[in-house]
């Protein structure tokens, strides 16, 4: 439908034979895009993540869920401190760099927090966190962070929907 309505739908029961269908269904939820960073024995590590959410205002908690099969998982599982960077629309190239390169921090100038965590500038928001808890969740692990400090800015958000990047603009802003 041209008006953005639903043309058709396919209902199915998820199983090991239709994981691509499930992945496609999951992709129908539009998300923002973040980069999570930490320090490690192998240097500064970053990972592009869209499984991020706020949880609580008091205490200030966030969560994200890395894939246990990722080559970067071990760094974040062990990290005591990490930062979540909510990306601006104009940071798509940076996002793509972190998708393919766990050592992407070696390719651009960045800051270091007082806890040794690599920091990306010019984000829409940034959350400096201490690990609060972790929970197994199938092939992922939910990592909960207690926000020790936060930064917020203005701009348009980098979004991800149906396997493609996009831009979310606040209503009424013609930027």
Biggest β-sheet, characterized? 7 strands, antiparallel
> Which fold name corresponds to the CATH topology?
Pnp Oxidase, Chain A
Across the major sheet, the strand order is: 3-2-6-9-10-5-4
Tally of discrete structural domains: 1
Q: If helices are DSSP runs of H or I spanning 4 or more residues, what is the number of helices?
A: 3
Radius of gyration: 17 Å
DSSP, total strands = 12
CATH level-1 class? Mainly Beta
Q: What is the helix fraction of residues, given as a range?
A: 10-25%
Instruction: Report the CATH superfamily.
Output: Electron Transport, Fmn-binding Protein, Chain A
Order of secondary-structure elements: HEEEEEHEHEEEEEE
What's the pLDDT, averaged over the residues? 89
Assembly type? single chain
Structural class: mainly beta
What portion of residues belong to β-strands? 35-45%
Uncertain residue segments:
none
Q: What would CATH call the architecture?
A: Roll
